[in-house]
UniProtKB/TrEMBL annotation:
<dbReference type="Pfam" id="PF03460">
    <property type="entry name" value="NIR_SIR_ferr"/>
</dbReference>
<dbReference type="GO" id="GO:0019344">
    <property type="term" value="P:cysteine biosynthetic process"/>
</dbReference>
<dbReference type="GO" id="GO:0004783">
    <property type="term" value="F:sulfite reductase (NADPH) activity"/>
</dbReference>
<dbReference type="InterPro" id="IPR001094">
    <property type="entry name" value="Flavdoxin-like"/>
</dbReference>
<dbReference type="GO" id="GO:0000103">
    <property type="term" value="P:sulfate assimilation"/>
</dbReference>
<dbReference type="InterPro" id="IPR045854">
    <property type="entry name" value="NO2/SO3_Rdtase_4Fe4S_sf"/>
</dbReference>
<dbReference type="Pfam" id="PF01077">
    <property type="entry name" value="NIR_SIR"/>
</dbReference>
<comment type="similarity">
    <text>Belongs to the nitrite and sulfite reductase 4Fe-4S domain family.</text>
</comment>
<dbReference type="InterPro" id="IPR036136">
    <property type="entry name" value="Nit/Sulf_reduc_fer-like_dom_sf"/>
</dbReference>
<comment type="pathway">
    <text>Sulfur metabolism; hydrogen sulfide biosynthesis; hydrogen sulfide from sulfite (NADPH route): step 1/1.</text>
</comment>
<keyword id="KW-0560">Oxidoreductase</keyword>
<dbReference type="GO" id="GO:0010181">
    <property type="term" value="F:FMN binding"/>
</dbReference>
<keyword id="KW-0349">Heme</keyword>
<dbReference type="GO" id="GO:0050661">
    <property type="term" value="F:NADP binding"/>
</dbReference>
<dbReference type="InterPro" id="IPR006066">
    <property type="entry name" value="NO2/SO3_Rdtase_FeS/sirohaem_BS"/>
</dbReference>
<dbReference type="GO" id="GO:0051539">
    <property type="term" value="F:4 iron, 4 sulfur cluster binding"/>
</dbReference>
<dbReference type="InterPro" id="IPR005117">
    <property type="entry name" value="NiRdtase/SiRdtase_haem-b_fer"/>
</dbReference>
Length: 1463
């Protein structure tokens, strides 16, 4: 079939709709208007005056539905209510802009994921195709706005009919690649389409003065944008015409930029004489690629004029204008952004250079009525004829737009001439509404009486027929108003019944009645007025405006009252309540207004518009209003929500939260609602009354019954209510508090457990019994989630008020009496608990049980103190003698989580879909570790966000599994891109020889994992209680034997992988990684997996760069005498680094050498050790669960014998081996054959670009040309390996260019390493990666002073005692204890052969230097030939050697004169 052509855009669009869709709905306009699409001839077209409902009804069965809209204003109000049900469906809405004014169509922009705009007929055809495919593939609503044309000479090239459906249904041709781009592998890089896949995805066609923008890397909306881009390329391939989201026209360095949304063509010819003016035309309105848009606004631009083809907009600022304002807000200097309108095209001349020149002359920052092009000829619908105070017209104009001439503002100022000032009082208006509604009821009764009289109806058959229809449709605004227009001419008052109807005729139409209350109106609504309105049940809508800026909220009591009005109304029951903010979500305002109007009863809408800046001399600017609104909404001060109790009757959730954060009051309200729902579930006999009743009496009965039942529920409990509040950082206090709560419940108490700060301080006095449980943080400070409460207590004390009289309390504190060893610091021990106990008494509270203190140093840890305290609580509450019939609920542990996870599934898949939070469920957070993912949050801004009422800035760490740390250049490039597009732009080379991404937000998780797998890497078992990434020495890459070792490490890693298919299901949509078949059966691990993490390393003497003894299992390679082939391994077992500060049951340990095995036996031995640990490891206490403790508990010989029994053979005697270092060798090395290697120094493994150090870029450039491999070292550095001889010059050139060849560092720096710690690691107690380089700067100077610049000293730092950077085998190490404070350790072996020991329990940066200076000096002066620093500190008497893990604490604190007691 050949291509066809159409003569109108509506015909072309309608044709595509008919060909592509399962169902086409043509929205019928109000009479006498006709649909534009009447000529479309297709069986699947259905006409509807309620198109939204039609689409929703057919949604389940339709592959693709299309709605054709000729008059958006008529359809908009109804459509908005149905959009939530449609926005994630395959629905295309083609909106024809009949009157040239985009205002109505653009109102949909904020409701649907995709909005396309076509300015020409050809574009309308092409985008209709694109929209249909996009919607079908993505299962998302797409709005396509276009202009209908009526030109017979129009010639639109159309696609053949038989190609449409195959195109719509074809599988994705341009899958999103790992860099997020739809890559043009099929020949799109050509001049035909004008889109060139250049280096950065842009093509600047300077010959034509045009730059087309193909978006790349947009972080926001990137997934939607990627999907759009992919489908646009598919469309391009079909129609051979480019569809660009944004098109730039003009010079490369303009000073003025016109942003165009409309039909007007402002081309290069028009702009050429102006020289410094450019224009951006927008065709993809949602998702608007703001970051890319910003990137395409040249830095030379100092003025932006946003021109939109709209006659007027309800709010002062249009959404597009605000998008541009916020996009450029951080640019320095910030361009002026000016808003203007663009007239429709009315003649062939179009926009001329002179028109633009005139516009530019008028365009100054305060410009009003800036306009380009012809005038709008369309008659504007008269807005509500009211004088509304200035800025508040934002809301009243929306009302006018939505409800048109049905809108009645009952207290509008235009009534003052008739009724006087009182007319604007909401109370007065309410009375008027009630009178009007009564009169309408009277009209209904009169009409019914008329219709029941056969004599009269037969006399007036036409009128009777219309009145019958009206009775049925009187509450439907569209139908009743249409009928009214037909009824009124037929009415006469010459007949008694008709006369009565005639006198009431103004009530035939269905009005939308609104009352407005605000500070700026004559009168605000008082509390009694609100109560009156709500209690009356009148069907009227109350719009309450709040103009108080967020930053001035404290000084305005009114604001608080407004917010309370919403809660008050919700508590009352049958009232529709919404809280909206026009400059936060315009779409939500529309939705709330439409729903309020539909609600049959009182509606209260709280509307935010921060304008009242008392000291401002001029009206608030757009940015100021935007910022205040954003602050208010993001902080939860002004949450956006809708509460529609009518939904309950339909079995739907009445509450919709439209913003992210709500504050405690609203949460409490919803909690109460949950209680009611709970009651209904527990007492089904109530359900019909509670849910199904409609009558007023029944509703009353419902409330009463629910309250009675709830009270009865509480009263049925034996004991008094007990509130347990806890403050906890590490989880110990939380666990204890929850345990107390659980035990309280078994004693019949009504118990609630929550954090200090989630409970309002003001409500403490209302609680009869509160048990406080708090741990100790930092330097005796309260934990994070208790600090606000402590502040409030201190504030109350400073006022001298006894505000807590009536409260009975008891406090239990957790601390560590040895954490602060210096006598002057002893008072930090359990300080929050002790302070709280004393201060509550000062505030008049009465202690019901004495302060309890738990000490980590006790035999049972804090349990020792707790066991004494808890009975006091039960005694005081009179439940100490209660017989406990139920078993105490068992605390949920990781073991429960693992077994309940169904082979590592948990509810991760569901959690990924939950957009209400950036986090996953806590239990899923444990399971994702097995998938290589840790949930973290940005701790730098945790407090700040908390103060703003926001949840932490959650981001995830993703760790790749990459045995031996070897990857290809292509994989390096993929990792680089993933970090750029999904993470925080940097990535880390870790101490376990792999890549780590940080700051990956939840919605980027799945695409990131998929991108990693596309690069033929994965993240399976990179963390979790399984065998983790297997390490392999990097440096011996020079030897043949290393190849065999690496093969062993890789094979072993794969043999010990979990076999669950969960990973593939959740992250890869069941696709298998590189063809590996996996089953839901764990032959190695079983359903519980291991008790704890399990680490393996393979070392190649004499290099111990993997720190083989620090691993659970180590394989020390033994080569044949020519060092050509691997004979086997000496096996070590029982190493491990993790410790808990001051918990002497925990200690670091080095692996013991078990003996020699062959390579084949080594696999069996690894499995045997793993399963022995699986079956014998401690699953009760995770702190004591590592293999090292299992071996010490079982005894080395018993453990070894069990391993041999499982393996079926015995270890041979260990073979001799020698290690000489565990650091890396930097610079060039010649390998075997033609291969060369260069080791790059990457400080602490962080790959990033910094000023003057573009390492990330440099390595990317190297990866683009490198022909060998990359090898990550366990010291977090990088070997560019296997460089062929002839490639050396090119690599050298790049190394030099990016300063990657700089190795001019001190021996100390080259031998150092640090873990990540702040800001991402949730366990960090102190800085590490960010602080060690600073510390080294200083220590380095000391070394230089004493001539030790080139001496290697292994110095390591970690942010907590978990020991990720293996600090316990360093010669000198620092382990974070609290911000700025570290445990200092000395005496480790230079090549990882000996543990170090605690030298000082707590040192600051200053103290570190004071300690090290004399020590380094002595080392320089007194060291023996070749003596290492760690050995020297022992020989010189600073520290005792550590001979085994169990003796690690012995003689800690230094020797002799250097000793400080740490006990
Ligand atoms: S050592 Fe502690 S702070 Fe550092 S990365 Fe590991 S867990 Fe985090």
């Amino acid at each position: 079939m050949s291509a066809t052509s159409s003569t109108s855009s509506q015909a072309a669009v309608g044709r595509i709709a008919a060909l592509a869709s399962t169902l086409v709905v043509d929205a019928l306009p109000r009479l006498p208007l006709k649909t534009l699409f009447a000529s479309i001839n297709a069986a699947r077209i259905r006409c509807s005056s309620d198109p939204g409902s039609t689409l929703v009804r057919n949604n389940a069965n339709a592959e693709l539905q299309t709605l054709l809209v000729s008059t958006p204003r008529d359809v908009l109000p109804d459509l908005i209510t149905h959009i939530p049900a449609l926005q994630h469906s395959s629905v295309v809405i083609h909106v024809a802009v009949t009157n040239d004014d985009l205002v109505d169509a653009l109102a949909l922009r904020l409701h649907v994921p995709f909005v396309l705009y076509s300015s020409t007929s050809q574009q309308a055809h092409d985008q209709a195709l694109l929209a249909s495919r996009l919607s079908r593939l993505e299962k998302k609503a797409v709005v396509h706005i276009f202009h209908p044309t009526f030109d017979e000479n129009e010639h639109i090239i159309e696609i053949e009919a038989d190609k449409v459906l195959p195109f719509i249904r074809a599988e994705q041709h341009h899958p999103i690649t790992s860099n997020g781009h739809a890559n043009g592998t099929n020949g799109h890089a050509n001049s035909v389409n004008g889109l060139t896949n250049g280096v950065n995805g842009h093509h600047l066609d300077m010959a034509h003065g045009l730059a087309s923008l193909a978006p790349a890397n947009p972080k926001d909306n990137h997934l939607l944008f990627d999907a759009y881009e992919s489908v646009s390329l598919d469309t391009l391939a079909l129609v051979r015409r480019a569809l660009r989201p944004i098109t730039y026209t003009g010079p490369s360095n303009p000073s003025t930029l016109l942003v165009i949304l409309g039909q007007a063509v402002i081309d290069g010819k028009c702009l050429a004489p102006l020289q410094d003016v450019g224009a951006l035309s927008i065709t993809l309105l949602s998702p608007l690629a703001i970051p890319k848009l910003l990137a395409r606004i040249p830095l030379s631009v100092n003025r932006i004029i946003v021109l939109e083809q709209i006659s007027s907009w309800p709010t002062k600022y249009t959404p597009l204008f605000l998008d541009i304002v916020s996009a450029v807000q951080h640019r320095e200097p910030r361009p002026n952004v000016i808003s203007g309108s663009l007239g429709p095209v009315v003649d062939a001349k179009g926009i001329t250079t002179t028109d633009v020149q005139k516009l530019l002359l008028k365009a100054v920052p305060q410009s009003k009525s800036l306009h380009l092009g012809s005038s709008f000829s369309i008659p504007q619908r008269a807005p509500a004829t009211v004088e509304i105070p200035s800025h508040e017209t934002a809301y009243t104009k929306i009302l006018s737009m939505l409800f048109g001439d049905r809108l009645v503002i009952e207290n509008a100022p235009d009534r003052i001439p008739v009724y006087g000032e009182i007319a604007t009082r909401p109370e007065f208006a309410l009375s008027r509404v009630q009178v009007e509604l009564e009169e309408r009821d009277e009209l209904v009764r009169a009409v019914q009486a008329f219709l029941q009289d056969e004599k009269r109806t037969s006399s007036y058959p036409d009128l009777s027929s219309l009145l019958t229809k009206w009775i049925l449709a009187k509450d439907d605004s569209t139908q009743s108003n249409s009928l009214t227009e037909q009824i009124l001419p037929l009415l006469s008052d010459d007949e008694s019944t008709l006369h009565h109807i005639h006198t009431l005729r103004r009530h035939f139409s269905h009005s939308s009645r609104w009352i407005i209350g605000s500070d700026a109106w004559s009168y605000d609504l008082g509390a009694s007025g609100l109560h009156h309105l709500i209690a009356s049940g009148t069907n009227v809508n109350l719009l309450l405006l709040d103009t108080t800026p967020y930053t001035l909220r404290e000084s305005s009591p009114n604001a608080r009252n407004k917010k309370d009005a919403g809660l008050y109304a919700m508590n009352h029951g049958d009232v529709f309540v919404a809280s909206v903010a026009v400059y936060s979500s315009y779409g939500q305002v529309l939705q709330a207004f439409v729903e309020a109007e539909k609600f049959n009863g009182p509606s209260v809408i709280l509307a935010y518009l921060p304008y009242e800046f008392p000291l401002a001399t001029e009206p608030a600017g757009a940015l100021q209003v935007l910022k205040e609104t954003k602050l208010a909404v993001d902080a939860g001060y002004w949450p956006l929500y809708r509460w529609d109790p009518s939904k309950e009757r339909l079995g739907q959730e009445p509450f919709s939260l439209d913003s992210e954060v709500i504050k405690a009051e609203l949460e409490a309200f919803l909690d109460r609602q949950n209680h009611l729902s709970q009651l209904v579930r527990n007492a089904p006999e109530m359900a019909s009354e509670v849910v199904g009743s409609l009558g007023q009496n029944l509703k009353e009965a419902r409330r009463k019954k629910a309250q009675e039942s709830y009270a009865a529920l509480l009263n049925s409990l034996d004991g008094p209510p007990l509130h347990v509040l806890y403050a906890s950082d590490g989880g110990a206090a939380e666990k204890l508090a929850k345990r107390l709560g659980a035990r309280g419940k078994t004693r019949g108490l009504a118990v609630r457990v929550q954090t200090f700060d989630s409970f309002p301080f003001a409500d403490l006095a209302n609680e009869p019994y509160i048990a406080f449980v708090t741990s100790t943080a930092g330097q005796g400070e309260p934990p994070q989630n208790g600090r606000d409460t402590f502040k409030a207590i201190n504030a109350a004390i400073s006022k001298g008020d006894k505000v807590l009289t009536g409260l009975k309390y008891s406090v239990f504190g957790l601390g560590d009496s040895h954490y602060w060893p210096r006598p002057e610091d002893k008072h930090y021990y359990n300080r929050p608990g002790k302070d709280l106990d004393a201060k509550l008494a000062l505030l008049g509270a009465e202690r019901f049980a004495d302060l309890g203190l738990g000490d980590d140093q006790e035999a049972d840890g804090p349990q020792t103190g707790y066991k004494t305290w808890e009975p006091l609580v039960w005694k005081a509450l009179g439940v100490d003698n209660v017989e406990i019939l139920e078993a105490e609920p068992e605390a949920i542990t990781n073991e429960h989580i693992k077994i309940a996870s169904n082979f590592l599934r948990g509810t991760i898949a569901e959690g990924l879909l939950d957009t209400s939070t950036g986090a996953l469920a806590p239990t899923d957070g444990q399971i994702t570790k097995f998938h290589g993912i840790y949930e973290q949050d940005d701790r730098d801004i945790r407090e700040e966000r908390k103060e703003q009422g926001l949840e932490p800035a959650y981001g995830f760490m993703i760790r790749v599994r990459m045995p031996g740390g070897v990857c290809t250049p292509a994989q390096w490039l993929a990792i680089d891109r993933i970090a750029e597009e999904r993470g925080n732009s940097t990535f880390k080379l870790t101490t376990r020889q792999t890549f780590q991404f940080h700051g990956v937000i939840k919605r980027h998780l799945k695409p990131s994992i998929q991108a990693i797998n596309r690069a033929l890497l994965d993240t399976i078992a990179a963390c979790g209680d399984v065998n983790r990434n297997v390490l392999c020495s990097s440096m011996p890459a020079l030897k043949n034997v290393h190849t065999e070792m690496y093969t062993f490490a890789k094979t072993l890693s794969e043999r010990l992988m979990p076999r669950t298919t969960a990973y593939h299901e959740i992250w890869l949509d069941k696709k298998m990684v590189a063809g590996d078949a996996v089953k839901d059966f764990e032959p190695m691990y079983g359903p519980y997996y291991l008790p704890r993490k399990f680490k393996i390393a393979v070392a190649c003497p004499p290099h111990n760069d993997v720190d083989v003894f620090a691993n659970d299992v180590g394989f020390i390679a033994i080569a044949d005498k020519d060092e050509q082939h691997l004979l086997g391994f000496n096996v070590t077992a029982g190493g491990g680094m993790g410790v808990t500060h001051s918990n002497k049951k925990t200690y670091p340990r080095l692996g013991d050498v078990f003996g020699f095995v062959t390579v084949e036996q080594a696999y069996i031995i690894a499995e045997s050790i793993l399963t022995t640990q699986r079956d014998n490891g401690n699953r009760q206490d995770r702190k004591n669960a590592r293999l090292k403790y299992t071996i010490d508990r079982m005894g080395l010989d018993v453990f070894k014998a069990e391993v041999e029994r499982r393996a079926g053979f015995k270890f041979q005697s260990a073979r001799p081996f020698t290690f000489d270092s565990n650091v890396d060798y930097f610079g060039w090395h010649k390998g075997t054959g033609d291969k060369h290697h260069f080791t790059v120094f990457i400080e602490n493994g962080r790959v990033q670009d910094e000023p003057g150090k573009d390492f990330k870029t440099g390595l990317r450039e190297i990866a683009k040309v490198h022909k060998g491999t990359f090898r990550l070292t366990c010291n977090q550095h990088l070997i560019i390996a296997d460089i062929p001889e002839k490639e050396i010059p090119r690599i050298k050139e790049l190394l030099k260019k990016y300063k990657l060849d700089n190795l001019d560092f001190s021996g100390l720096r080259l031998s150092s390493s640090a873990c990540v710690a702040f800001p991402t690691c949730g366990l960090a107690m102190a800085e590490s990666e960010r602080y060690l380089p600073v510390l080294i700067d200083k220590v380095e100077r000391i070394c230089e002073e004493y001539g030790l610049r080139n001496d290697s000293i292994v110095m390591r730092m970690t942010g907590c005692p978990n020991g990720c950077a293996r600090p316990y085998v360093a010669e000198v190490a620092f382990v974070g204890k609290s911000p700025g404070v570290y445990v200092m350790l000395l005496g480790g072996g230079y090549y990882g052969q000996r543990l170090n020991k605690i030298y000082r329990e707590s040192v600051t940066g200053h103290e570190i230097l004071e300690i090290l200076r004399p020590m380094i000096k002595r080392y320089a002066l007194e060291r023996l030939e070749g003596e290492r620093f760690g050995d020297f500190t022992i020989r010189a008497g600073y520290i005792a050697p550590t001979t085994s893990g169990k003796e690690w604490y012995d003689r800690a604190g230094g020797e002799g004169e250097y000793h400080i007691d740490t006990a």
